[in-house]
Write a structure and sequence with these properties.
Strand content: 5-15%
CATH class of one domain: Mainly Alpha
Strand order of the largest sheet: 1-2
CATH topology of one domain: Arc Repressor Mutant, subunit A
Number of strands: 2
CATH architecture of one domain: Orthogonal Bundle
Length: 154
């Protein structure tokens, strides 16, 4: 078992970041910056539809992207459709499938989410130098890449 001190510190930091990022106070601040309340499952669903490389993204693609079962993804999609952020249409290839696409409201929401996240991060790192922010971003990008590679092996 590897227990190098920097790895112990990294695990502790990542665990704490995840806990804090999902805390009520941080969520409230994000909602203030976004200017509206929206379920995080809806944001994740919209992002999954937007990032999909499938020619006709559907519920199954959302489920795979979010690592949830199809029934959970279906509920998320139903909410996004009800909120007016996603539209469903019949697949031209397979009439049993529905194709998902972001509406203009869905695209606008994702733009707002990105801006709110940047603003939130700017506030959190306001007393950091640009080099420190860049170093953190580079390290996190490398970590995300390693996690993504592990995920692709599964």
């Amino acid at each position: 078992m590897t227990t190098r001190a920097p790895l112990v510190d990294l695990v502790a930091a990542v665990t704490e970041i995840r806990r804090l990022w999902e805390s009520p106070r941080v969520r409230r601040r994000f909602t203030e910056l976004l200017g509206r309340s929206v379920e995080f499952s809806v944001i994740r669903t919209l992002a999954a539809v937007q990032r999909s490389t499938a020619p006709d993204p559907g519920v199954r693609d959302v489920a795979e992207a979010l690592h949830v079962d199809s029934s959970t993804a279906s509920r998320f999609v139903d909410q996004a459709v009800a909120d007016g952020f996603v539209e469903r249409s019949a697949s031209a290839v397979d009439r049993r499938r529905c194709v998902l696409a972001l509406t203009s409201e869905g695209n606008a929401l994702l733009t707002g989410v990105t801006n709110a996240r940047i603003e939130l991060m700017a506030g959190l790192t306001a007393d950091w130098g640009d080099a420190d922010v860049a170093t953190l971003a580079t390290g996190l990008e490398r970590l995300a890449g390693s996690i993504s590679a592990l995920e692709r092996q599964s």
